[in-house]
């Protein structure tokens, strides 16, 4: 009886299948998924981007994401990877104003005289 419970607990702790989660439901946007700190250390990202460290099957990953609130970011990763997956959430290294990030200027047309 106890051996079966230990096996179930071990499987539950080490196996969290990746679920397909709709980012829009959580008002989040994943900018870089399963990346490194060196790649995320780019000043061209917005200032509201956050780094999140999480573990899946004993392997630690880092994502760079944008979200309105940190709790929504936590909820998204909790629902996707399960209990105990989220290790740490920290600020990103971006320096671009979030309102201007990804902005493309209009093509300037010549004015008629």
Structural features, described:
- With 113 residues, this protein is an alpha+beta fold.
- The protein has a domain at 20-91.
- The protein contains 3 helices and 4 strands.
- It has helices at 2-14, 37-40, 70-81; strands spanning 28-35, 49-56, 59-67, 86-91.
- It has a 4-stranded antiparallel beta sheet with strand order 1-3-2-4.
- Strand 2 and strand 3 form a beta hairpin.
- It is elongated and about 65 Å long.
In brief, what are we looking at here?
The protein has 113 residues and is an alpha+beta fold. 26% of the residues lie in helices and 27% in strands.
Question: How do the strands line up in the largest sheet?
Answer: 1-3-2-4
**Radius of gyration over C-alpha positions, nearest whole angstrom:** 19 Å
Poorly predicted runs are 10-16
**Biggest β-sheet, characterized?**
4 strands, antiparallel
First and last CA, distance: 89 Å
Q: How would you sum up the global shape?
A: elongated
Quantity of strands, as a count: 4
Order of helices and strands: HEHEEHE
Beta-sheet strand percentage? 25-35%
Helix content: 25-40%
Mean pLDDT level: 82
């Amino acid at each position: 009886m106890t051996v079966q419970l230990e096996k179930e607990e071990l499987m539950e702790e080490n196996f969290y299948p990746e679920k397909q989660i709709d980012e829009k439901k959580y008002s989040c946007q994943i900018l870089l998924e399963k990346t490194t700190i060196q790649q995320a250390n780019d000043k061209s990202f917005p200032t509201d981007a956050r780094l999140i460290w999480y573990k899946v099957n004993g392997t630690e990953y880092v994502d760079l994401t944008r979200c309105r609130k940190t709790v929504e970011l936590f909820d998204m990763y909790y629902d996707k990877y399960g209990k105990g997956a989220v290790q740490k959430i920290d600020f990103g290294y971006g320096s671009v104003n979030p309102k201007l990030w990804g902005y493309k200027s209009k093509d300037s047309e010549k004015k008629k005289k």
